[in-house]
Design a protein that fits this description.
312 residues, alpha/beta, seven-stranded mixed beta sheet, binds adenosine-5'-triphosphate, binds magnesium ion
């Protein structure tokens, strides 16, 4: 199984979906995570942004979606972009495929084709990022069906709270149709620090609470330049502020994806002996978080007296 599948989704155009998909995927891959980037947008911006020449794409996501998955050779779909990063590129033909009467539309399992395609790639990848088109159709629905989480970039620069609410509501309606819980992470993007943008950011937090990622992707000219050179920013400008934003985002996603640590009780009859030693060591790792009590590791050295009282 691919452990985490992120659909990067928002029907609003130009809010930073592709930029997030490309750069987050590249940062994850650089950390040694086997990463797949799937372009579900007929505009095929992922290929351009990663320097994959469109004329050399033999098989695209569109072909693969409608292919017989039992006999599909996925190696003809995947482009190795860098160590640990593969791209499943798209082409314009995805538009026709999605349209009523198109190949995808006429399939009985039309909204599960991407999920099925990911099944063919079992064991190859740890993370998958899906770049969605700026509309709500069969392609976006396929992405959400296949996803374990959704990332919703919301521009703070041209942001209106009403717009963001509408965007979130539409995605919530789609997730409801999927019929399974899909955590949604709202990602403030294209953020240019200004009093207005800061106010809007604050409103975003007030409206959506914990759904808003505690990370901001600021507006960086470097990101625009990187795209025109066909490189993720981690390659184009390593160490830049732009890269740092995506590193922080990757850190946070790793953090929330970490399985809860078990609560371990180590008790000791006193301050001496093996059990006391283990408890002392564990205390060093003890995390006491009121918000996440499930994450705490509790080590306890019981005073000899107390214990003797309870077990006379
Ligand atoms: N943080 C940023 N800083 C500077 N430029 C950015 C940033 N994010 C995106 N851009 C630029 O804004 C434009 C739109 O970004 P992007 O293509 O990522 O949005 P999108 O949501 O994928 O658009 P679409 O809906 O058309 O697919 C691009 O030119 C991109 O280079
Ligand atoms: Mg895009």
């Amino acid at each position: 199984m691919i452990v985490r599948v992120f659909a990067i989704v928002n029907q609003k155009g130009g809010c930073g979906k592709t930029t997030t998909a490309i750069n987050l995927a590249a940062v994850a891959a650089n950390r040694g995570v086997r990463t797949l980037l799937i372009d579900m947008d007929p505009q095929s911006h992922c290929a351009a942004g990663l320097g994959v020449p469109e004329e050399r794409i033999d098989m695209s996501v569109g072909d693969a979606l409608v292919a017989d998955h039992a006999s599909l050779d996925v190696t003809s779909l995947l482009w190795q972009v860098s160590r640990n990063l593969d791209l499943a590129p798209s082409t314009m033909m995805l538009t026709a495929l999605e349209a009523p009467g198109g190949g995808l539309h006429s399939m009985p399992d039309r909204d599960r084709r991407l999920e099925s395609l990911l099944g063919v790639m079992n064991g190859r990848f740890d993370y998958c990022f899906i770049d969605c088109p700026p509309n709500i159709g069969l392609l976006t629905f396929n992405a959400l069906r296949a996803a374990t989480e959704a990332i919703v970039p919301v521009e703070t620069g041209y942001f209106s709270l009403r717009g963001a609410r509408r965007q979130r509501k539409t995605i919530a309606a789609l997730i409801a149709r999927v019929g399974r819980r899909i955590p949604c992470h709202i990602l403030p993007s294209l953020h240019r620090p200004s009093p207005l943008a800061r106010t809007l950011l604050q409103r975003l937090h007030e409206s959506f609470g914990d759904e808003v990622a505690p990370v901001i992707i600021r507006e960086h000219e470097t990101l625009r330049e990187a795209v025109s050179f066909g490189q993720p920013v981690i390659e184009f400008a390593p160490g830049s502020e732009a890269e740092r934003d995506f590193e922080h985002l990757a850190d946070w996603l790793e953090e929330i994806g970490r399985p809860s640590q078990p609560i371990v009780h180590v008790e000791s009859r006193g301050t001496q002996g093996r059990a006391a030693e283990i408890a002392r060591r564990m205390e060093q790792f003890s995390v006491q978080s009121p918000e996440r009590p499930d994450r705490s590791v509790i080590a306890r050295i019981e005073p000899e007296q107390e214990r003797d009282d309870r077990h006379p």
